[in-house]
TrEMBL record:
Pfam family membership, one: PDH_C
Keyword vocabulary terms for this entry: Oxidoreductase
Domain Prephenate/arogenate dehydrogenase: 10-299
The keyword Nucleotide-binding belongs to this UniProt entry's keyword annotation: no
Chain segments annotated as coiled-coil in the UniProt record: none
Alphabetized PANTHER family for the sequence: PREPHENATE DEHYDROGENASE, PREPHENATE DEHYDROGENASE [NADP(+)]
Organism: Sneathiella chinensis
UniProt cross-references to SUPFAM superfamilies, sorted A to Z: 6-phosphogluconate dehydrogenase C-terminal domain-like (SSF48179), NAD(P)-binding Rossmann-fold domains (SSF51735)
PROSITE patterns membership: PDH_ADH
This protein's name: Cyclohexadienyl dehydrogenase
Length: 312
């Protein structure tokens, strides 16, 4: 999949130059995938940072200026902004341009964006499944997507040629490309990414509530598993608010199953059912091994790359 040498774009316009947008800008430059890379950013500070980092050639406040002459436009803002941005840039998109995104949810994104895509413009929604808990243009890096999945979720406005072009783009950046329906994507990501984040936010919040009882002990003894949760729970509040509001059904469905399974564990602890606990923990340990064996990374590389990036 996506083995062809990608087309070199004339102008790539990145709308929202945070962690993901700036990582794409860096990767586009590193792999020579465009003549020009530009961005749109709301604040003067972000535009100045993007220019100082030399990751874009021009930075605009008005996204319609950024998309002028662009043959690839990538929405990289929180998903809650997509509808308004698509409405604004729709009329300014060039004929023949390819519009895509990086949003962590897909059905709602297709629903919000597609109505604003003019005839003669292709739209292929996408989700690079790679990130960190950090935000902003300085947090990005060119190989963020290397060896990671990028899921394309084609819809009505996606031609085969546009899907192939986007596949080649992400492959050139180093990602493994997969295609699936937006609905399937949202169910899978609800359990592999969205619910885990909700659990992290919740456990850190609960521990924080307990601080009054335990004084500083929550911080003092948080060297183990809890520390991993605090990394995830440090993720951007706007981005995650928008993910939960825009993948409501799938998250609630998975949360329902999760709650049932948690109740079963609670019951096993209450009634001293050691075998039940042991079997469950053995099953999950085997899953971790399978993930490591199937992946490109070792457990150590995975740990070093994402567990404590602030220690780099
Ligand atoms: N962080 C991750 O791990 C990750 C991974 C994959 C996909 N995503 C998706 O990528 C998108 C961006 O996430 P991020 O982590 O780069 O966030 P980020 O906070 O680092 O960057 C988002 C940027 O968008 C800007 N922005 C917000 N509203 C805007 C608007 N109306 N016009 C222009 N700019 C605007 C913000 O100021 C910020 O600079 C989200 O849709 C998210 O779901 C994130
Ligand atoms: O490593 C992290 O910090 C992430 O949470 C990255 C992560 C994920 O859940 O895997 C978060 C949201 C994205 O949409 C894709 C990737």
């Amino acid at each position: 999949m996506g083995q062809e040498r990608p087309e070199k774009f004339k102008r790539v316009a990145i709308i929202g130059i945070g962690l993901i947008g700036s990582s794409i800008a860096r990767a586009v430059r590193l792999h020579g995938l465009a003549d020009e890379v530009v961005c749109a950013a709301k604040t003067h500070d972000t535009r100045r940072t993007a220019l100082e980092l030399k990751i874009v050639d021009h930075a605009y406040e008005d996204p319609t200026e950024a998309v002028k002459g662009a043959d690839l436009v990538i929405l990289c803002t929180p998903v809650g902004t997509y509808g308004a941005i698509a409405r604004q840039i729709g009329p300014a998109l060039e004929q023949g341009a390819l519009l895509t995104d990086v949003g962590s949810v897909k059905s709602k994104v297709v629903e919000l964006v597609e109505p604003h895509v003019p005839d003669g413009v292709d739209f292929v929604a996408a989700h690079p499944v790679a990130g960190t808990e950090k935000s902003g243009p300085a947090a990005g890096f060119a190989d963020l997507f290397a060896g990671r999945w990028c899921i394309l979720t084609p819809s009505e406005k996606s031609t085969e040629a546009a899907i192939a072009k986007l596949d080649a783009f992400w492959t050139a950046i180093g990602s493994n490309v997969e295609k699936m329906s937006p609905e399937h994507h949202d169910l899978v990501l609800a359990i592999t990414s969205h619910v885990p984040h909700l659990i992290a936010y919740n456990i850190v919040g609960t521990a924080d509530d307990l601080q009054e009882v335990t004084q500083s002990e929550v911080i003092k003894y948080s060297a183990g598993g809890f520390r991993d949760f605090t990394r995830i729970a440090a993720s951007d509040p706007t981005m995650w608010r928008d993910i939960f509001l825009n993948n409501k059904e799938a998250v609630l469905e998975m949360l329902g199953r999760f709650t049932e399974d948690l109740t079963a564990l609670q019951r096993a602890i209450r009634w001293g059912e050691g075998d039940t606990l042991f079997q469950m923990f053995s099953r999950t340990r085997a899953i971790r091994r399978q993930i490591i064996d199937a992946g490109q990374e070792t457990a150590e590389a995975d740990f070093g790359r994402t567990a404590y990036p602030e220690d780099d």
